[in-house]
Amino acid sequence: MIEKTFRVSETHDICQLDAASLTEAYREGRLSPVEVATATLDRAEQVQSQLSAFTFLDREGALSAARAAETRWRDGVPRSAIDGVPTTLKDIVHVANWSVRYGSRVTEDLPFGDDAPAVAGLRDAGAVFIGQTTMPEFGWKAVTDSALCGITSNPWNADVTPGGSSGGAAVAAACGAGVLHLGTDGGGSIRIPASFTGTVGHKPTFGRIPAYPPSAFGTVAHIGPMTRTVGDAIIMLTAMARRDTRDWTQPPMAFPNLTASAMSWTGKRIGYWKTPIVGAVCPGVACAIEAVLDDLETAGAEIHEVALPYREDLLEVFYRHWYVGAANRLSTIPLAARTALEPGFLDAAEIGERYSAVDRMWAEGRRAQYGAAMDGLLIDFAFIMSPTVPILPFAAGRDVPDGSGLKSWVEWSSFSFPINLSQQPACSVPCGFTPDGLPIGLQIIGARGDDAGVLSAALAYEQLYPNRFLTPGRTWPKLMGERNRS
Fold first, then answer.
1. What is the pLDDT of residue 11?
2. Smallest Cα–Cα separation from 386: which of 307, 454, 289?
C-alpha cells in the first residue's frame, strides 16, 4: 500500500474547518488527525490563557486518540464522519479517566471509570477529546463564572459574558478550539451562550440523547451539540443520540430519524413569539429578528404572531422545578463544605428547600397543561421563531445586567426556559451583530421529536445567510497578538 503524505496547513485555517472539510481532507491525505489535534490544542491553550474557557486540556490523551484515528483513515476504515475531529466536553458529563468537578470547589478531583452515554457515543465515533470546558457551579445560572475556574469571557468582547452555563463550550467553538462541543441545557444553557457568541446551539427533544447519571435538576435538563455550523450540529447529534437503558426517562421506542436537508420556506406557517415572559426585547435584537422574518415571508413563509399558553404561570413553574433541583443538589454536599459554595447557588437551593411537595406538584400539573398546549400549537405551525435572548451580552462576572432591575438570570432567559419545560427541540443560529459587534441569536422551535425539521429549517436559514456563520473566509473573533487573517 502506498502511504499517503499529509500536507501541513496554516494552524488558524485548520482551526476554522468544519467536520466535513476535515474528514474529506483526512480521506484525501491532505491533513492528518494528529496535525489537526496539535493545531487545535495550541489554539485552545491560547484561548484558555485569554478567555478561561477550559478546566483542563488533555494533550496526551488527544494526541493518542488522533494517532489511532490517523491509522484508521490511512487504512480506509474510519469509524464515522467525525473520526479524528477535535471535540470538547463540558465539565458536567462523566468521561472515563477524567474527573468532573461541575464547576465547584466542593467536588473531588478523582477520575471516573466510565463514559456517560453521550460521551461514549462520541468516543465510539472516533471523536478526539481535547479537553473539558468551563461552567458555573453545578450549572445553576446562565452565565459562566465560578470560584473554581474564574470568569469566562466572550471572545467578541472580553469585558462581557459569553452566557452560560455552557459558556466555555461556546467560547471554544467561536474561537476554533475544537469543532464539536458537548453542552447541556436546563433553562437555555446551550442556546444562550450560542446566541452570545455567534455560534450554533441545539437543544434536542428531551430524551433523544440519554442522560446518565440523572441531572439533579430533573427533566428540564437536556444534552446537545454546540458548533459553528448547522451541519456539524447534525453530525454531532447523530453520534450522541442512542437508546441507553440506564436513562429511565427516555421513551422505550425510537425517535424519528435525524435526516435533515435544507427545506423550502414556501407555505411554511411560522409562529413569531415576540414577547418574552419577563421584560421587553432590546430594540436591536427585535430589529434583527424581524428582518429575518421579513426575508422568510418574501421566500414564501406565512408569519403569524403567537403568544405562549399559560404564560402567566411559567416563571413560577420553572422556579419550582429549578430551585428544587438546586436544593436536591445541595442535599448531596456535606454541611462542612457548604461555606465554599457560591452564595447565589446557596440562595437558589434555600428557596427550593422552602417549597412544599404540594408546591412542586402544582408546578408539575401546570407544566403538563402547558406542554400539551405547546404540542397543540406545533400542530398548527411548522415552527415557532423568537429571539434566543431578549437582551445583549452584558458585563462578565454579573448574573444580570447592571441597572436592569432584573432579579435573576431566569428573568432574562425567558425565551429559553419555557422550551425546557415543554421539552421541544430548539436551535439557536447566529442572526447578525449589533453596531458594537456583539452577536444576536435567532431561536427555531419545533414539535417534540422533530429535531430533523428544526435542523432542516436551520440549514435553510444558513443557506440564506451564510456569512453569519463562522466558516473560513469570514471575520472571526480576534485574540490578543493574533494577526488579522479575515
1. 62
2. 289
Which grid cell sits at 360? Answer: 412542586
Contact of 416 with 389, CB cutoff 8 Å: yes
Q: For domain 11-246+263-468, give its CATH number from 3.60.15.10, 3.30.470.20, 3.90.1300.10, 3.10.129.10.
A: 3.90.1300.10
Indicate if 90 belongs to the active site.
Answer: yes
Cell 461514549 maps to which residue?
120
Separation between Cα atoms, residue 206 and residue 185, nearest integer Å: 10
DSSP class of 30:
S
Q: Is 189 a catalytic residue?
A: yes
Q: What is the pLDDT of residues 350-401, one digit of tens each?
A: 999 999 999 999 999 999 999 999 999 999 999 999 999 999 999 999 999 9
Active-site residue, selected from the candidate residues 165, 408, 416, 422: 165
C-alpha cell at 458: 436551520
Burial (CB count <10 Å: 0-12, 13-18, 19+), residue 24: middle
Among candidate residues 80, 90, 146, 195, the one labeled active-site is 90
Q: What phi and psi values does residue 163 have, to the nearest 5 degrees?
A: 80, -175
Residues 285 and 435 sit within 8 Å (Cβ to Cβ) = no
Each domain of the chain, given as residue ranges in start order, spans 11-246+263-468
Which residue of the set 189, 386, 408, 413 is catalytic? Answer: 189
21 noted as active-site residue: no
Longest dimension (CA), the chain: 71
With contact defined as beta carbons under 8 Å apart, do 435 and 372 qualify? no
